[in-house]
Amino acid sequence: MRLRLEHVHERRISGPNYCVAGAKVNDTAVQKPVVSAHGTAFIIILAVSFGHMINDIMQSLLSALYPLLKDNYQLDFWQIGLLTFAFQVTASLLQPIVGYATDKRPMPHSLPYGMCSSLIGLILLAYAGNYWLLLVGAMLIGIGSAVFHPESSRVARLASGGRFGLAQSLFQVGGNFGQSMGPLLAAFIVVPFGQHSVAWFAAGALVGITVLWQVSNWYARYRADTTRKPLGGVSVMLPRRRVAIALTVLTLLVFTKNIYIASIASYYTFYVIHKFGVDVQQSQIMLFAFLGASAVGTLLGGMFGDRFGPKAVIWFSILGVLPFTLAMPYANYEWTIVLSILIGLILSSAFSAIVVFAQELVPGRVGLIAGIFFGFAFGMGGIAAAVLGVVADHQGIDYVFRICSYLPLLGLLTILLPNIGVLRRKA
């Protein structure tokens, strides 16, 4: 398959209400879009989204395997948490470094190489003879994730034609869809056929490597095109102190979102098995419903972010989910399914908006921002999974879900974010 470069038509907007990137306007500089939305290269965005799906299927198989691994290796909850910690913190530590390095020197062909690392980790998970090899497999998947995310996020932005929210959400929804497929694949393939069947997914990884190699070739041609003007973004240059405050708030919002997501991804199956007496297969299907709703919410969040602005989406997502998270620990079986779907739909809509917001605040650092926020997402999820595992061992799984239900209250910090739309209109 050969992916063709679609031409991105570029234009500059001039007039009394606009300014050149970097010009001072009341201590605020505004950079306006310089590309037309008509140049959006959807085939490239969909290709990296497909690669994201394959990448996250391999990742989600790890957490979907937890009930099997717990029985096969006689693991405690803290050991389950350590597996998540090994995977996510490896990715967390490396992603900002990879993002910073590729901002200075882009590495187009790092995309398929990263997936090769995840493929090796997947094979180790299938045939690990002891718990320590499981940890090594989890770390290799984390390394693959660290290499993949910053550069693929940059490719999605380059192919966006100025529709940054839509491009980021389409890229992200591939990952969400991959995460949601993991529990289904575990329920209908891994659970019936055993741990070794994880190796069957190597075929999908090879397809992903092939697709990403073609995307890398497009990326290399894009960079080599000397007639192409630099891709402009919708960036607002604020005083350094305001940028630092805004990035801190965005980081805390990611912290809130991903600790709650970690509680669901790592322990939701154990929670519904314990509380409602369902079997492993039913619990995996319930987890799929949550993760599938998260994929839909991510796509909608990007679309609404382009239309109404990222701050509005963040308000709705982080704080709007609070009534549903508070209700879920006390719900019956049917309402638990409904509430988990609503929570996944609403809570996931914020992530692409948060990434786009941060990229506007720090222009020219697409890889670093993607590395920090994707990496922070993984890191906080890993730390949370380990801590929550210890809490679950001592206080019970019900207690974990009760305390996590209050996390969206931190969404009130959104009030500290700058109103980028107002700043643009004043420029």
TrEMBL record:
Regions crossing the membrane: 34-54, 77-98, 199-222, 243-265, 285-305, 312-331, 337-359, 366-387, 399-423
Molecular function via GO: transmembrane transporter activity
Top-level taxonomy: Bacteria, Pseudomonadati, Pseudomonadota, Alphaproteobacteria, Hyphomicrobiales
A Pfam family this chain is assigned to: MFS_1
InterPro entries found in the cross-reference section: MFS, MFS_dom, MFS_trans_sf
GO cellular component, one term: plasma membrane
Domain Major facilitator superfamily (MFS) profile positions: 44-423
Keywords: Membrane, Transmembrane, Transmembrane helix
Taxonomy, superkingdom: Bacteria
Record's keyword annotation contains Electron transport: no
Protein's name in the database: MFS transporter
Signal peptide: none
Keyword Transmembrane helix carried by entry: yes
